[in-house]
Amino acid sequence: METIDDVGEFGLIARVQARLPLTSPDTPVPAGDDAALLNAPDGRLAVSTDLLLEGNHFRRDWSSPRDIGHKAAAQNFSDIVAMGGVPTSLLLSMVLPGDLPVAWVEEFAEGVAGECAGLGAIVAGGDMVRGELITISVTVLGTLEGRAPVLRSGARPGDTVAVAGRLGWSAAGLELLLSGEKTGVEAGDGAEQASGGAAQAGPSGSVGSVAVPAEAGSAGSVVVPLESGSAARSVARPGAGPAESAAPQPADYLSAHRRPSPPYAAGPQAARAGATAMLDVSDGLLADLTHLAVASGVAVDVDSALAVTAPGPRLDLVLTGGEDHALVATFAPGAGLPEGWRPIGTVHEGSAAVTVDGKAWDGAVGWSHFGHSE
Ligand SMILES: Nc1ncnc2c1ncn2[C@@H]1O[C@H](COP(=O)(O)OP(=O)(O)O)[C@@H](O)[C@H]1O
Ligand SMILES: Cc1ncc(C[n+]2csc(CCOP(=O)(O)OP(=O)(O)O)c2C)c(N)n1
Ligand SMILES: [Mg+2]
């Protein structure tokens, strides 16, 4: 098996670049020189960055390299969309073990390319360094197309809180993978096993701290035992939610965890519709709404009956599960919600706090990398 030590740094860059979209009309100088040169169509650039660490954000025995490529790009694109913008390019840096098969990195690059394709985004450069754990750093750039950014700080009392995209699906998939881990049940559902082997590496303490409150299981549980080898059923992509009436299967939750489907079009749509505040749900709805409540100086109440879609994940997963990259936004009363958005709560005057059905949530509100889960 050909490893990346066999082809060397520049051989690997060539193999990866061959699979990436590198040029666009807004790329006067593509990757390959000391720096790329990009046009900023409306004179501003939206910029954001996120790291993915093996063992912490993904596992090679849980996800294919293609899935991980899709996820690394998607979780970054989602931050641009959550400002009301459109992603245009990304920078892709990787720490890679020398004995990793070249095929793993090529497939990962194809995943990144696949996620870029839907948006017409390009890869403007990156870096590669040897290290023990696969670490992926993505920096994304985007355009607001002349619009004002939708910040976390604009929510006002009386606004409606609305969501586009899925809540709790990725967390339901993670729960299945973790339970398979505990019971020894085979977690594979057709995701191509990484040709790099099934090495589970990295800090696992964070895995144990995933937000699954003790009362999990109370509200209309749909999570069913993992069936080994169940066929992966692909579920409709963005805007998923109320329209998805067929009961999601375990394989659907696993796919949602491995390859999130952020509702990309919904961000610019919300901006055009005058959303007062917006952010993406990476850590958990209650955790991320708390950021919005703090930034806006308001109280937010979530109506659990509206947040949960039946059939779908349990209430605790909907409220505290991260990584689906749904969008949450606030809209002035009477503004009307754009297509694909559904109401889940209201903004009130009060201290920067989030309640569920008028009461404080008793348990973790989402994922946190440091300390205890939030
Ligand atoms: N090392 C850092 N240096 C400067 N800013 C940072 C650093 N880490 C995080 N931030 C900023 O803090 C804010 C919150 O980070 P994070 O919770 O990771 O946001 P998100 O969920 O949108 O990825 C972001 O604006 C991010 O850019
Ligand atoms: C192996 C593994 N364990 C646990 C998780 C769960 N998990 C890891 S990071 C995270 C939250 C989102 O990641 P973060 O780096 O906080 O993204 P950001 O908020 O910066 O966008 C979650 C729920 C996972 N995806 N994979
Ligand atoms: Mg971040």
UniProtKB/TrEMBL annotation:
Note the Gene3D superfamilies from the entry: PurM-like C-terminal domain (3.90.650.10), PurM-like, N-terminal domain (3.30.1330.10)
Positions contributing to Mg(2+) 2 binding: 50, 79
Tell me if Secreted is a UniProt keyword of this record.
Answer: no
Q: Which intervals hold domain PurM-like N-terminal?
A: 32-143
Residues the entry annotates as binding Mg(2+) 3: 34, 79, 280
Binding site residues for ATP: 126-127, 152, 282
Q: Where does Mg(2+) 5 bind?
A: 283
Biased composition regions of type Low complexity, renumbered to the chain: 188-207
Quote the EC number: 2.7.4.16
Report the superkingdom from the record: Bacteria
Which reactions is this enzyme annotated as catalysing? thiamine phosphate + ATP = thiamine diphosphate + ADP
Residues that coordinate or bind substrate: 57, 323, 367
Give the residues the record marks as binding Mg(2+) 4: 34, 48, 79
The similarity annotation says:
Belongs to the thiamine-monophosphate kinase family.
Any further remark recorded for this protein: Reaction mechanism of ThiL seems to utilize a direct, inline transfer of the gamma-phosphate of ATP to TMP rather than a phosphorylated enzyme intermediate.
Q: Sorted alphabetically, which HAMAP family does this protein's record hold?
A: TMP_kinase
What protein name applies here?
A: Thiamine-monophosphate kinase
Organism, by scientific name, is Catenulispora pinistramenti
